[in-house]
Amino acid sequence: MRFYLRRVAVLVLSTVLVLVMVNLYLRESWRALEVDRLFIQDHAEDGVIRHKFHDHITFQNDEEGGSDKKTLNEYTREDRGNKIDSDINIKSQDDFDSVLIQKMLKSPNPYGRNLVRKVWYDPKYDNDRIVAQLGFVPDLAKKNKGSTTKLKKVMVYTGLPGDVPTGQSRLIKDECPVKTCHMTDNRQDAADADAILFMNHISRPWHKKPPNQVWIVFLLESPSHTPSLSGMKDMINWTATYRHDSTIVAPYEVYVPYNASVLSKPLTKNYAAGKTKKVAWFVSNCGARNGRRQYAEELGKYIQVDIYGACGDKRCPRSDKKCFEMLDTDYKFYLSFENSNCRDYITEKFYVNGLGHDVLPITMGAHPDDYKRVAPPHSYINVDDFESPKALAEYLHELDKNDDLYNEYFRWKGTMRTINTYFWCRLCAMVHEAENHHTWYENVDDWWRGQGVCSTGRWKDGSSYLSNSQKGS
């Protein structure tokens, strides 16, 4: 009898376990943690890449009684209630960089494009909207002067970062224009939260999503190093990534000019003086899929390339300041090579190691147009502009022999600086405006890693940077 009861108990428990597993699978809670490493190209015959980034974003037209649903490529509108309060007096670190920000809000785009003061993404305009979002105060928050505005509950489902405590303290510390948000990572608050933020990985909530709850996916790594989002079809409303077409752009850095009409200055320094070494590269990941290591090794056949770290024969601990001081005093060039060739994927390898030092960065990673969008003018060299590592080396030798030509790449120095983008401030302000802007991604995974987003080689045609003979040598 005992044996029979034991078998029954085991059978019941096994059945329950199987049902739970099937339920989880159907909800795609496990599949959401898988990493899709596929790179898909979408090129026309002329070699120009065709992008379908925005066909997956659906906008609910609720103006004038409308109820039609169209993609952002089919439908755009002027923002409602999103006018920038240019008279706002922002105070925080460096006065919230307010002098720079307010100047930018009133000045023309330094890159020659029409900088529309929008806070929501619009495919008609090619800008990241960061400056506009920094000065954005929703009408409701302005009317209530902040003190009586209803607190919006923002839940970080995957856990609050260490520098963002529960409550409003981070927003108060940063002296955000809109502080009326309560930050939490208590999953018991999920059902009644105004917004849920999924940071770096997806763990789908159990509750049924309320119609007005905003779900946001936050990712800073490239698609080849982030989990699949396939289980979130029609569920994600906003994105917060480094891509400039995200709802809330979260770049590694952003450069803003002191004066939009002055983007170069007369040189007061010879940046080539005293430098006796050619190319440096700090790297620890030797297996990047874009072939950066092989490119660097091939480049080293034609010009001196010193590789520091696990992938080379030179050592210099990251904790040693002298490692980066070498870039200012010894080397003329630095390989700012990303681990993935994906749209807008530009990290500290470019901003900090490259532009942050008196060295000329050589870039590989994002699309050439992406570097043009964010980088100071004439501040870098891109490998896609050269047919081969040998051709690049020949140009580097030319710069090495001609100080005037080399120094032209540093005329931007002193004309701009990086600013704090205050992600949490922007998030809080925009959550207050969410009810007036209804969007969602029909297939956020396709938006994130679909056709044209990443390349295994050259952006023009997807071919390898190296010829077959170079690969085998």
TrEMBL record:
Main location: Golgi
SUPFAM superfamilies according to UniProt: UDP-Glycosyltransferase/glycogen phosphorylase (SSF53756)
Occurrences of domain Fucosyltransferase C-terminal (ranges): 274-447
Keyword annotations of the record: Glycoprotein, Glycosyltransferase, Golgi apparatus, Membrane, Signal-anchor, Transferase, Transmembrane, Transmembrane helix
PANTHER family assigned: ALPHA-(1,3)-FUCOSYLTRANSFERASE C-RELATED (PTHR48438)
Domain Fucosyltransferase N-terminal span(s) in chain numbering: 173-252
Pfam family, one: Glyco_tran_10_N
Organism listed in the record: Lingula anatina (Brachiopod)
Class of this enzyme: transferase
Keyword ATP-binding: no
Recorded GO MF terms: fucosyltransferase activity
Protein family membership: Belongs to the glycosyltransferase 10 family.
Record-linked InterPro entries: Glyco_tran_10_C (IPR055270), Glyco_tran_10_N (IPR031481), Glyco_trans_10 (IPR001503), GT10-like_C_sf (IPR038577)
EC number(s) on file: 2.4.1.-
Topological relation to the membrane, as annotated: Single-pass type II membrane protein
Top-rank taxon, per record: Eukaryota
Subcellular localization, as worded in the UniProt entry: Golgi apparatus membrane; Golgi apparatus, Golgi stack membrane
Pathway: Protein modification; protein glycosylation
One of the record's GO cellular component terms: Golgi membrane
Protein name per Swiss-Prot or TrEMBL: Fucosyltransferase
